[in-house]
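User: For my dataset I need records formatted as: sequence, then structure tokens, nothing else. Please produce one.
Assistant:
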Amino acid sequence: MKTTNILLCGFVIGIVFSAFLTKKTVITPIPQKPVLLRVETLDKWSVFVEALAWVESRHDSLAVGRTNDVGYLQITPVIVAEANRILGYKAYTLEDRTSKAKSLEIFEVIQGHYNPEHDMHFALKLWNPKAPVSYHRQVMAEFNQLINKQRNDILLHRLRDVQLSRLKEPRPL
């Protein structure tokens, strides 16, 4: 009786297993979303301004330089006067140099007037004409570091989104 039960169990297992093998199972691959390496969402000009501010003041709105330059972008009285001249009225005062928002506005007025194409190297020469080559290299090195960090962050977010979408998709048995 024991031998018959074992044989019967083995026979049933064999039938189930062979049925499984002969059954046509189609395993479809999970569609993958492409991860684009080109990053379209980066605003390079904003990253450049951030890099410039880091080199100029380490993002300190109250920083004071050696040549009467003050604030986030180390703005001199001459730059404030030039921004007001371009606008045609007195929009900015010397006190505005300590405001990050006003400093950025003054920078954009100057750059928009003299550098509307937003050429980064010309912007550096325009902003700090007497700066040595090492200054330009320092700003551009900071810019490249920020761009690479933002690209990596964007790619990591996209990769995480792809992985999460794969977890949510039903998998065939």
